[in-house]
Amino acid sequence: MLYTESVKEDMEFLPSPEALKRKIIVKAKKKAPAEKANESESEEEEEAEKIAVELKADIQQNKKVVAEGLSSLVNICQAVHFHGFEEAKVSGKCYQMSSFCETKAEDLIEKSARDFVAYNTRQLSRIYPSGTRTGSSNYKPTPFWNVGCQIVALNYQSSQRPIFLNESKFRQNGGCGYVLKPKFLCGTGDYDPDAVMAHRASTQLKLIIISGQHIPKANQDLQGEVVDPYVVVKIVGHPADAQKKKTDIVRNNGFNPRWNQEMSFSLKVPELAMVHFIVRDCSTTGKDAMLGMYALPFTSIQEGYRHVYLLDYLRNLVSPATLFVHVSIE
């Protein structure tokens, strides 16, 4: 199952996901091709001594040396150091990829978002959590998706909102693991995330949160407790589209609460937006408990009357809890 095809120096595009079905791709550093041996014995001895000195230097400096066997398996995911967008534009290859700590990537987005988008149209980038996250917490993946980063790695040990959004996003396309980026993140690289307000028309999303069915208690062991549910709807995606609205509270009714409340959202970049439904229990003594939620990409929403099946953070069904809503898009 290993993908073992060699790459050509002038290769412009990576193979498609279709061409890589049921293949395992090895990502690691690739050793440079070995130089041809010199004919002169003296030169051979001199080279051998030089290699020995370099190897010794690599071991005080504590450098990791890629094993020859591993290096030979590396082809379309060759790990390289990132030396700036300008150098990558001039000499970067489609089969070379760089990894960025979340803090480094955030800094690049803040200072050079447009260049980051252009970089991701040519090469793969991988984002990984900071080493300071010793408790396996996670960053928000959406800012990195917004500039076209292909591999946004998360700590899967924790059942938090970032994992929930990641699972929700990648349920698209049959849950195969691949999701196509919007065309403006795949094309010529002239998309500027900081300038979307100026040239993009808005898409209107209108929701009517009609009712709920069988909303559970936060703690099933408490006898006699009745929930006071309300619904929060968040738009997660481009910062220009970040919005949050909520319904009124229905007192003492988790069985069939009725809200009949309309919400309108104006979206500048709907291709990047995710719609996040959260049902909470209003508390007068502490934090409002999360009773169930659901999230899906805006591009996956269908208009009309819909049931929203509520899940927990692990994406297990909170059966048979649902929301009944109406969706319209203009």
Automatic annotation (TrEMBL):
Listed EC numbers: 3.1.4.11
Alphabetized UniProt keyword annotations: Hydrolase, Lipid degradation, Lipid metabolism
Domain PI-PLC Y-box residue range list: 70-185
Gene Ontology molecular functions: phosphatidylinositol-4,5-bisphosphate phospholipase C activity
Pfam families: C2, PI-PLC-Y
Stored Gene3D superfamilies: C2 domain, Phosphatidylinositol (PI) phosphodiesterase
Enzyme class: hydrolase
InterPro entries per the UniProt record, alphabetical: C2_dom, C2_domain_sf, PI-PLC_fam, PLC-like_Pdiesterase_TIM-brl, PLipase_C_Pinositol-sp_Y
Catalytic activity: a 1,2-diacyl-sn-glycero-3-phospho-(1D-myo-inositol-4,5-bisphosphate) + H2O = 1D-myo-inositol 1,4,5-trisphosphate + a 1,2-diacyl-sn-glycerol + H(+)
A Gene Ontology cellular-component term: plasma membrane
GO BP of this protein: intracellular signal transduction; lipid catabolic process
Domain C2: 181-312
The protein, known as: Phosphoinositide phospholipase C
